[in-house]
Write a structure and sequence with these properties.
Layout: E1 2-5, E2 16-19, E3 29-38, H1 41-48, E4 64-72, E5 84-88, E6 97-101, E7 105-107, H2 121-134, E8 142-146, H3 151-162, E9 166-171, H4 174-183, E10 187-190, H5 196-203, E11 209-214, H6 221-227, E12 228-236, H7 249-254, E13 258-261, H8 269-282, H9 284-288, E14 296-301, H10 305-314, E15 320-324
Parallel strand pairs: 8-9, 8-11, 9-10, 11-12, 12-13, 14-15
Antiparallel strand pairs: 1-2, 3-4, 3-6, 3-15, 4-5, 5-7
């Protein structure tokens, strides 16, 4: 088969479409013939040499895929050859075939085509696990989403609105904010022109956000704590603004607030399977009903992964960038 390889870390040009050995599904895995994968920030970090795959994972980038099962490994039940699926991966999505643990597979939702299903596993699992399973967003509460026009952001807006929450977003342009508003965002904040702490206080009569989903990290840590409501929960899922920040414990204590930080890729298989099961139970019916939908900026051939990474790094996209391994 062919896959996107990284012979040496570097810029987008480090991504090389090459012939590689066919993978073999192991115990509890299925082999998926990939129709499409999707680009994530973690793929960029891996390409740069800063985020190696977990032990035993595929060396190729790609944290999600959609395709068809072509082989069942030992001990797999509940799936059949020919099933159309999408899956959460620890790596290997940028390839023509990839082994996937059966517990990380999902059927393609009703109303979503196979190619677009590649935009769903990572964002659905990340948002549901952090915003709902960890931060316990409830109806009537306010969620602040940083990077509202990203793949994560567009999913978070839709899921929060579906459960009856109010949604505030930050984004870097009027166009991105307009797209967030179309998806249901109530409070629109241009982070180039406005301070999100001040804007959030104005919009919530001084209360702040009950839950904040943050991809920035250290740069926003102090302001995120100031933006939290009493009993607020800050969920950190990215470090685009640095890894070390000063945390005002007094402010956190006075608000009886909580800070959590999670990643998805390196979790044990059992934890990932539990998250995927929750996504199937809670998110998949919303997709089937058309309440939630994948937001795709564009689809490029997988051989053009370097261009997809340049687009990701420019932050000019809205929603997910897909890589097509096959033109179905």
């Amino acid at each position: 088969m062919h896959a996107i390889t990284i012979p040496e870390p570097g810029g987008p040009e480090a991504l090389v479409w090459a012939e590689v050995p066919d993978p073999v599904p192991g115990e509890g895995e299925v082999l998926v013939e990939v129709v499409a994968s999707a680009v994530n920030r973690a793929d960029v970090l891996q390409r740069q040499g800063f985020y190696n795959p977990p032990a035993g994972a595929s060396p190729y980038p790609g944290l999600e895929c959609a395709g068809r099962i072509v082989e069942l490994g030992p001990g797999v039940s509940g799936w059949s050859v020919g099933d159309e699926v999408c899956g959460l991966l620890a790596g290997g999505g940028y390839a023509e075939k990839v082994p996937v643990p059966a517990g990380q597979l999902l059927p393609v939702p009703d109303g979503v085509d196979l190619m677009q299903a590649a935009a769903l596993p990572e964002v659905a699992a990340t948002v549901w696990s952090n915003v709902f399973m960890v931060a316990h967003l409830r109806p009537g509460e306010t969620l602040l989403v940083h990077g509202g026009s990203s793949g994560i952001g567009t999913m978070a807006i839709q899921l929060a609105k579906a459960v009856g929450a109010r949604v505030a977003v930050t984004a870097g342009s009027a166009e991105k904010l307009a797209r967030c508003q179309e998806l249901g965002a109530d409070i629109l904040i241009d982070y180039h022109e406005q301070d999100f702490v001040d804007e959030l206080r104005k919009a919530t009569d001084g209360a702040g956000a009950d839950v904040i989903l943050d991809i920035v990290g250290a740069k926003y840590l102090d302001r995120n704590v100031r933006a939290l409501a009493v009993n607020g929960r800050l969920a950190i899922i990215g470090l685009q603004g640095g890894v070390k920040g000063e945390l005002n414990l007094g402010a956190l204590l006075s608000k009886r607030a909580a800070v959590t930080a999670t990643s998805l890729r390196g979790r044990p298989l059992a934890e990932k399977a539990a998250i995927i099961a929750a996504v199937r139970e809670h998110v998949w019916p919303l997709l089937a009903d058309g309440v939630v939908r994948p937001v795709v900026d564009r689809t490029l051939p997988m051989q053009e992964a370097a261009e997809a990474h340049r687009l990701m790094e420019s932050s000019s996209h809205i929603g997910k960038i897909l890589l097509a391994a096959r033109q179905d």
